[in-house]
Amino acid sequence: METARHKRFHAQRKLHYLRHELLVDLGFSNWHTLEFWRLVAMLMFACWIRLYVHYVTQWLFLRGNRIPVYDFQPRWTTCIVKYTWQTVATHTEIGLLSLGVLGNTMMFGFLSGSAALGQRYVGDLPSFGSNFVVCAGIATVLDPFLILFVDVLSHHYGCSQLSECSVSLTASGCSCVNGDWFKLYVRFQAQEGSGLVGIFIVLILYLALTCLSLLALYVYLLYVHMNGRMLDVYRRVHGHEDAFFVPHDAEISLQELQTICAQVTRWKGPRGTQRKVFVHEYALSDPLDPLFRETNTHVAVYNVEFDGTRELHRHFLKMPDGAVLELFGELGANTDGNWKSDAPQGAASLALLYNILQDVQRGDTSASMSSASVFDGL
């Protein structure tokens, strides 16, 4: 049973993995390469686009709630959205602040969903598209803090103290608006005489929205980015040993065996040599356990000469668990039931190999099976 300490350790390990993928897989650690500067330019473009997504979403929210917007000025670094906040309820303004960040989150979700659908129905997503979606996710996470940074530099606070806005904030010469981080402070300062409550509400709100954006970015990096390669790496690094399926060294698929047997029926040698498939089933049982029974199927491909002599070409063994192994090394004329020195170890039990050898040594004359009947019991 996992304790709280174990859960914290797993959370720290996941955050470390996220940071590693952002810095290494995206190429941000190689600042001297052209790829690094291309990603920087892509990130700056994504941050610039998220600015307009943020304010256009807020403008649509105001228009949807029938709140008059008497000025909307898109600029290179910000957007001026003017409305009379005194006529707006507090919960509506909180929704306005939330929708600005959620607009970018929805845009990132749309890009992530498009990338996932493209991988599922079209094929691999190019690395350029994957990197752009990641840059959009980073811009979404940084959106509240970039808004604060620009508002502070643009002096989008304390508008009533400016000379051009002292008469009215709605004046045409007043280009100052209260930034998102200062809206609730100004509201509670005017209504209750203290803006501390507004500060705490904004901090909690943006902290929750940032966590939501981080979760969306983490899910994208793990399941969609680079066509799911990171999820494969994550499972290989953090998975338990018994959770992996490790095929045998000489294992082949059943479809490949079917193809080989189909080619055998069409093969003809220069001297009339043909290739035929012989199938034998060996049932292993335990006298001490009546319920124990394992069936192994040996598929052998022989070169049959015109005079009836035959020589082993290839042979395969279907294990009880369904795995199909190609057996390498010739079947020797030994009577001890062992393979030659180049045969794989642990492919099957000694009893089974001994039975196969005995059948070969007796020169079993059973008829070969057709390519269709070979796989009836497989």
How far apart the termini lie comes to: 42 Å
- Percent helix, as a range, is 40-55%
- Spatial strand arrangement across the major sheet: 3-7-6-5-4
CA gyration radius, whole angstroms: 36 Å
Q: Tell me the strand percentage band.
A: 5-15%
Total count of domains = 2
Order of SSEs, N→C?
A: HHEEHHHHHEHEEEEH
The best one-word shape is: elongated
- Overall average residue pLDDT: 79
Keywords: Membrane, Transmembrane, Transmembrane helix
Transmembrane segments: 36-53, 94-117, 129-150, 196-221
InterPro entries: OFCC1
Organism: Phytophthora infestans (strain T30-4) (Potato late blight agent)
Topology:
Elements: H1 4-25, H2 34-64, E1 69-74, E2 79-83, H3 90-121, H4 127-153, H5 180-192, H6 196-223, H7 225-238, E3 251-252, H8 254-264, E4 274-286, E5 289-304, E6 310-318, E7 324-327, H9 350-361
Helix pairs in contact: 2-3, 2-4, 3-4, 3-5, 3-6, 4-6, 5-6, 6-7
Please tell me about this protein's structure:
This is Transmembrane protein. InterPro entries: OFCC1. The chain has nine helices and seven strands, in the order ααββαααααβαββββα. It has helices spanning 4-25, 34-64, 90-121, 127-153, 180-192, 196-223, 225-238, 254-264, 350-361; strands at residues 69-74, 79-83, 251-252, 274-286, 289-304, 310-318, 324-327. The protein is elongated, with a radius of gyration of 36 Å. It folds into two domains: 4-243, no CATH class; 251-375, no CATH class. The model is unreliable at 332-348 and 365-374 (pLDDT under 50). β4 (274-286) and β5 form a beta hairpin. The strands form two sheets. Strands 3-7-6-5-4 form a five-stranded antiparallel beta sheet. Strands 1-2 form a two-stranded antiparallel sheet. It is an alpha+beta fold. Helices cover 50% and strands 15% of the residues. α3 runs antiparallel to α5 (180-192) and α6 packs across α7.
